[in-house]
Specification:
The chain is of the alpha+beta class. The protein folds into two domains: about 45 residues; about 160 residues. The chain contains two helices and eleven strands, in the order αβββββββββββα. The chain has an eight-stranded antiparallel beta barrel. It has a two-stranded antiparallel sheet with strand order 8-9.
Length: about 210
């Protein structure tokens, strides 16, 4: 009986080992805590000297690339939902665009950029810049997101009034937290299930 118990334990260990070995980093989560600098225009989402929190998730192997895929420079993801908290109110910035850049990009050295249009006609457009380490590897038409933590201080923040053509430029300071979320691939669940089924059969036959 003792030998059988050891046998069962070994089978279960192998099944669990196969399952953990094929875990996939399927999602990259980003959280940004920042503060708006002097001169920031007061709107429903912004005010000088006020803090804000943003968060969003992207697949680690994104496929919804649009508009700009510039080799060795950047790629865009759209549409994304960004959770935004400001002055005690949390809202969802729907249909936001997030652009990721290489550290050698001519437009922004590393990190990422968030663009959000307020209203169906995009009467007001917000652009947050979070420059930092490059957040992906591989070519821009087939990137893999590798989220990291970094500080992004003194970065541009711009509000456009697209009805009047007015532009309001200021700066922001922010801390970015990036983390992958491990989820099991379907193959790992099948392996684990097969292992458990085998154990159940052994228990049945031994009984």
């Amino acid at each position: 009986m003792k030998r059988f118990a050891v046998y069962v334990f070994v089978l279960f260990f192998i099944a669990a080992g196969f399952s953990s070995s094929v875990l996939a980093d399927s999602t990259a989560n980003y959280s940004i805590a920042g503060i708006y600098g002097t001169g920031t225009q007061t709107t429903s989402l912004t005010a000088a000297g006020q803090s804000f929190v943003m968060s969003f998730s992207v697949p680690t192997n994104p496929v919804a690339l649009i508009d700009s895929i510039v080799p060795n420079d950047d790629f865009y993801l759209y549409p994304l939902n960004v959770t935004y908290s400001f002055e005690g109110t949390t809202s969802t910035l729907t249909n936001s665009l997030v652009a990721f850049y290489t550290t050698a990009s001519s437009s922004q050295a590393g990190g990422f950029f968030i663009d959000y249009c307020l209203g169906s006609t995009c009467s007001t457009e917000y652009q947050w810049t979070f420059q930092g380490p490059q957040q992906y590897i591989g070519p821009e038409n087939n990137p893999t997101i590798v989220p990291t933590n970094f500080s992004s201080n003194g970065q541009p923040f711009t509000i456009f009034n697209n009805d009047t053509g007015a532009e309001y430029d200021s700066l922001l300071n922010a801390t970015v937290t990036g983390a992958p979320v491990k989820t099991p691939e379907p193959s790992s669940l099948l392996l684990l299930g097969a292992g458990l089924a085998g154990i159940a059969l052994l228990v049945k036959f031994r009984g």
